[in-house]
Structure formats: C-alpha cells, structure tokens
TrEMBL record, chain A:
EC number: 2.3.1.31
Gene: metXA
Basic and acidic residues bias: start-end ranges: 13-22
Gene Ontology molecular-function annotations: homoserine O-acetyltransferase activity
Catalytic activity entry: L-homoserine + acetyl-CoA = O-acetyl-L-homoserine + CoA
Protein name per the record: Homoserine O-acetyltransferase
TrEMBL record, chain B:
Xref: NCBIfam families: metW
Source superkingdom: Bacteria
Species: Afipia massiliensis
InterPro entries linked: Methionine_synth_MetW (IPR010743), SAM-dependent_MTases_sf (IPR029063)
Gene3D superfamilies listed in its UniProt record: Vaccinia Virus protein VP39
CDD domains reported for this sequence: AdoMet_MTases
Identification of the protein by name: Methionine biosynthesis protein MetW
C-alpha cells in the first residue's frame, strides 16, 4: 500500500521560493562582464549557478566528475534535499565507496540554468526589474546548460573533467559535453538518453506544458504575483510524465488493480485504485518542490535538443576524431529513451572511431531504472569508471 | 548479484593451453601486428581482446550476449552489444586494421555477408571456426546417424547458437567465390595445437578441429 503523507504546502512552497534566489548549496555568481551566451541570441547577465561539491580535488586537478541531473532533478545528488528532506537523488551511485566514489573523486553537480533550485531561471529575480523573471526569461537549450556548467568549472579552476555522467536529460548534457568540449572530457557515461528528443517525447512534453498553461492559476506565467501556483496543472503534467518513466510491468508489479483503503469500488471518480492515489501523490509532492515555469523551460530545452542538427544532420560528425572514452547504457523496458536510440548513438560513435562501450540492462523498471538500485547497472558504472580511472592514472583512494 | 554470477553461453568451449590462453587466440594474436587497430566481432567475455591489449593493440569488440558485454565492460574493454549480422553495416570502410571473427562464423545468419563486411571494415580479416569436416564429426553422423556433438561443441542441435556449420574445404571455396585472398591458413588439432603446415588440404579438412585464416581483399 502506498503511504500518502499530508503535505506541508505552505512551508515547502516558501522554502522553494527562497531556494530560487538564495540556495542552501554553494553558488557561483557571474557578473555583467561574464554573460552566458544563449542559443536564442541573448546574453544572460548577471546570472548564478547553484551547485554541490563532494570529495576533494586532487593536487593535479584530474579527479573531477561532473554529474548532470535529469529534468526535475537538481544539485542535491548525494545529500539530504533542503525542501523535501529526502536523500539525494542518485545515492545508489554517488557516495563513499560507491561507483562515483566521493572518497576518490571530486564530484560536482550543478542545478541547470533555467532550473528553480538556485541557478538563474524563470523563478529567479530579474536584476533589471527587481521582479521574478517568469516568461520574460529567455528560452534555454541543452547546449546553454552545458555552456553554463563549463563557466562554473572555469570558475572553480577545473580545466579537464575525468568524467561527465548523467541520465535522461543529464545524459543529453553529458553527450553535449563530449561534442562541445571534447578536449575537456576524458570519459563520459551517458545513461537512458539520446542525442535528440523523439516526436513521441516532444508530444508528452507538450501535453505537460498544456496542462500547466490550462490551469487558471498559471495566469500567463505570472502566478507568483498573486501568490498563486498552478498546482493542478503541474500535478497533471507530473502524473503524465511519471507514467512515461515507468513501465506497464513495473506498475502492475507495484499496484496491480488493487483498491486503495477500501474493499469495493465507490462508483465515483475518487482515487479507488492504488495506482491512482500513487500518481496523485507523485503529482502533488512534485508541485511543492518544483516551479511550473521552470518545468516549461526545461521540457522545451529537451525538445530542442538534436546534436546531429548542429552537424549537418550527420551524427557521426559530432565525434570525429574524439579521444573521449564512452559508456552508453540503456534499459530494456525504457520506452521514453528506448535501446534503439542508444544504439544510434553507439553507431555514430563507432563511425567516428570512438572508444565506446554499450550495454543494455534487462529490467522491467522502465526509464526510472537509472535512479533505482539496479545491481547490473551499478556494476557496469563502477567497472567503466574503474577502468577509465586507471587509464587516466588515478590511483585508488587511500582509505 | 554481480556480473560474474551470471551464466554466459559461448558458441564453443575450447581447450586452454598451459599459459591460460586458448590455442586459437594465441595463433590469432600472432597474426596481428602490434599497435594496430582491431575489431573483435563476437568477442565473448573479451579474453582475446585482453590478450591483444597486452600486445599494444587498440581493440574494440561487438558481442551479442548481454552477459558477455557486461563481463567485458567490467574488464575495462570497449565493447558494444550488437549483432554481427545486422550491425557491421554501420561501420565505415577501412575503419580497422584487422577485424576478427573468432568462433562466431557458424553462429551468424548470413556468413557470406558477414565475411564480406569484415573485409570492407578491416584491411585484413582473421576468421577461426570449428571444422565440421573433422573425422569425428563425419564418424558420428555416419555411425550414429545423429548430429555430432563434441567436447568443444556440446550443444544439442535444437539448443545451439551455431546455425551455419561448414568444413575447412567449404570455407576455402567461399573465400574463392567472394574474391578473398588467403594470406595464411592454419588448422588446429583437438588440443589447439597447429597441424603440419605442409599437409595437403584434404588432411586438414579431415584432422583439423578448427581452421584459422588470415584474409585480405584480392584487388
């Protein structure tokens, strides 16, 4: 049975609003002299990037792993989340003794530009007006996010990454890193992702955005001026997205057709089924930690992503002569980023003579498998990073 | 559960020599120039790639089985999960110095197309396969009237990844047909040791347990 906790809506929303400008994590500020060049042609300045760092940078600055988060993730990859109080989103992979070993590597994870956890985005204050950006915020892309991350690394004095790692939208960023800054990336682990967003995925995102914008509380994107929040719209968007992150088998295993807190159906539109009340819970808890406008901007960024388009439609050209080591991982039951998409990436890498490994992990847990405790995936990640570390001359942690 | 716990089903179970390497692998490794670029098609658990790496070879692999790929990635090898029958087409011309097909030809759906692809992708190809013309095979079919099974090829006919067996003689004919030049040919006995080099073809076809061929394009 799913445990649905009552939400402390007011406090959570206030905390989230505070995090947008004053994150409880580290933050790098870039002044008017260091604008972020956006693909839409606008220079964003000043701006800030919120990030978390774990572990120690070694003497020759060669042990940095950059973790890129997924659509609704953030920089709190391996620590308790300041708004939800939940553990870090990738604790299966990141931590002491784990594949992304914080005793061995200097691990950096930044909130993407356009996000709502401290990096400049639509829920941040526009310094020019003193008001929140809202829809005045320029449209951003995955390459913009990566450009901002590169500026953060410059700011931290890190020239080369030992590895860039990410799943889903984070995997898109990892791949973008290897084509935009090949000389800065020694190895890349790209999980459950693709070099372009498929028409089906764009369609799901459009469904989510329309749900947000159809909510009367959205108010043309300026809901914050009336202290409103399009909860129902964003909740529905999250429910729809959440279904795409799972698989029929996983949903069936978890819930089947069981009823929630009752013996017989009520013959009404209450949440009779466990799966309904689970989705409602997913929707409403998401609303407390995420900003509706950020959701619009970040889904849009994924939709626009297409690495091949930047190389005259030939994906292999993106990696011609690359020296980066790649590991691409997909999951059998992922229908958002199916194995065929990963295979296309691998074919292009092979055509560019890249050193690439590829594995498809058998699981019924769907797209979300990359966030879950799937032993085979964790083993592969460990093995790939281990071998890359020894090739990079990184010795084991002295523990 | 770890990767190592999972069952892995190879196409053939071949004897290992004193130093821990398979006889055909040692022979193949000798045919590869140190420092060259190699693609091992059907690389299994990556044993040959590891042997080649000790010789300074830049090796890549393709393997059909998920378990095989996982074993390889765990060893730090660059191996891609894929199917020789469908995936070779995605590799550009002359991408590698050598393309190796070790004990995999008999498990492909279209051996001829695969062989042509090997020589398109690589400047040279090295192919090894079990010889179905070996006298033990012939004897089993003649005396028992059943599909032969040996220590090296223990699977039953209905439960085997091997679907296109051939003899050394068959293979030589195919090479001739698709205009491939045989640079070197070696037959190995049951223990993975090379047979007499100057023996006639019929002798190899009768007593060779495996054939190992170094091939190039005949221009």
């Amino acid at each position: 049975m799913v445990n649905v906790k009552p939400l402390k809506s007011d406090t959570a929303s206030t905390e989230r609003a505070h995090e947008a400008d004053h994150p409880s994590s580290l933050v790098a500020q870039f002044g008017a002299d260091k604008p972020l060049r956006l693909d839409c042609g606008i220079d964003l300045a000043p701006f800030q990037i919120a990030y978390q760092a774990y572990g120690q940078l070694n003497a020759d600055r060669s042990n940095t792993i950059l973790i890129c988060h997924a659509l609704t993730g953030d920089q709190h990859v391996a620590n308790v989340h300041p708004v939800t109080g939940k553990p870090g989103w990738w604790e299966t992979l990141v931590g002491s003794g784990k594949p992304i070993d914080t005793d061995r590597y200097f691990v950096v994870c930044a909130n993407v530009v356009g996000g709502c956890m401290g990096s400049t985005g639509p829920s941040s204050t526009n310094p020019a007006t003193g008001k929140l950006w809202g829809l005045d915020f320029p449209v951003i892309t995955i390459p913009d996010m990566v450009r901002a991350q590169a500026m953060l690394l410059d700011h931290l004095g890190i020239e080369k990454l030992f590895a860039v790692v990410g799943g889903s939208m984070g995997g898109m960023q990892a791949l973008q890193w290897t084509t935009a800054y090949p000389e800065r990336v020694f190895s890349a682990l790209a999980v459950a992702c693709s070099t372009r967003h498929s028409a089906q995925n764009i369609a799901f995102h459009e469904l989510g955005r329309q749900a947000v914008m159809a909510d009367p509380d959205w108010r043309g994107g300026r809901y914050f001026e009336d202290d409103a929040h399009p909860r129902r719209g964003l909740g529905v968007a999250r429910m729809a997205a959440h279904i795409t992150y799972l698989s029929d088998a996983a949903l069936h295993r978890k819930f089947g057709r069981r009823l929630q807190d009752r013996e017989v159906p009520t013959f009404s539109f209450d949440a009779d089924f466990e799966v309904e009340s689970y989705l409602r819970h997913q929707g409403s808890s998401f609303v407390e930690r995420f900003d509706a406008n950020s959701y619009l901007y970040l889904t849009r960024a994924m939709d626009y992503f297409d690495i091949a388009a930047d190389h005259d439609g030939v994906l292999a050209e993106a990696w011609r002569g690359t020296r980066t080591r790649f590991c691409v991982v997909s999951f059998t039951s992922d229908w958002l980023f199916p194995t065929s998409e990963s295979r296309a990436v691998v074919h292009a890498l092979n055509a560019g003579s890249a050193r690439v490994s590829f594995a498809e992990i058998e699981t019924d847990r769907g797209h979300d498998a990359f966030l879950l405790d799937v032993p085979e995936f964790i083993e592969i990640s460990r093995a790939f990073l281990e071998s890359a570390a020894s090739a990079h001359g990184l010795t084991s942690a002295s523990r | 559960m770890t990767i190592q716990d999972q069952a892995f089903k190879p196409t053939a179970v071949l004897p290992v020599t004193e130093n821990g390497y398979r006889g055909d692998h040692l022979l193949v490794a000798q045919m590869v120039e140190p420092g060259s670029r190699v693609l091992d098609v059907g690389c299994g658990e990556g044993d040959l790639l590891r042997l080649l790496e000790t010789r300074g070879v830049d090796g890549r692999g393709i393997e059909l089985s998920r378990e095989g790929v996982n074993h390889c990635v765990a060893k730090g090898l660059a191996v891609v999960q894929g199917d020789a029958d469908t995936d070779l087409i995605n590799y550009p011309d002359d991408a590698f110095d050598y393309v190796i097909l070790s004990q995999t030809l008999q498990a492909t759906r279209q051996p001829r197309v695969v062989l042509e692809n090997l020589l398109r992708i690589g400047r040279s190809a090295i192919v090894s396969f079990p010889n179905f013309g070996h006298w033990k095979m012939r004897l089993q079919l003649l005396v028992k009237g059943q599909m032969p099974r040996t220590d090296n090829l223990p699977a039953t006919w209905y439960d085997t990844p091997n679907i296109h067996f051939c003899t050394i003689k068959d293979f030589v004919q195919l090479c001739d047909e698709i205009n491939v030049k045989m640079e070197r040919a070696v037959a190995l006995d049951l223990y993975g040791r090379p047979l007499r080099l100057n023996a006639p073809w019929w002798f190899w076809n009768m007593f060779g347990e495996q054939g190992v061929f170094l091939l190039t394009r005949r221009d």
